Amino acid sequence: MSAQPEYTPAPPPAPAPSAAAQLLVRIRADRRADTWVPAFERDWAKALEDSRHSYSLTPLHDVVRVWQARLAAAPAVDTFIASGMDDSDGIALEDALGARP
Fold first, then answer.
1. Among 23, 63, 73, 93, whose CB has the most other CB atoms within 10 angstroms?
2. Residue 63 falls inside a structural domain
């Protein structure tokens, strides 16, 4: 007998169609915009190409979710860095959020 769950976990809800545009506005307003805007645009372009090949919107949704999480975590990261605490034992963002699409 296999140990399969009795239910399939529901996937996270899809972001709104305008989520990427709204996210880009928020990224441009951030003090890190000089580095984050090109990074977001690079991630978005790669996800768009992946979506074209796979006929799936999942790569685009993943980019939006990762960047929403990054923006949500930014104030806590700023506070931590400003506190002067030792961050030498930190972990990579990919380890905390999962692999990037």
1. 63
2. yes
**Separation between Cα atoms, residue 39 and residue 36, nearest integer Å:** 5
Domain encompassing residue 68: 56-81
How far out from the chain centre does Cα 100 lie?
Answer: 8
Q: What CA–CA distance (Å, rounded) separates 48 from 22?
A: 17
> Tens digit of pLDDT for each residue in 53-89?
999 999 999 999 999 999 999 998 888 888 877 777 7
63 and 50 in contact (C-beta within 8 Å)? no
Q: Report in angstroms the alpha-carbon separations of 64 from 1, 21, 89.
A: 39, 10, 28
Note whether residue 64 is domain-resident: yes
Using one digit for the tens of pLDDT, what is the confidence trace for 21-45? 999 999 999 899 999 999 999 999 9
Interatomic CA distance for residues 24 and 58, integer angstroms: 18
CB 30 within 8 A of CB 74: yes
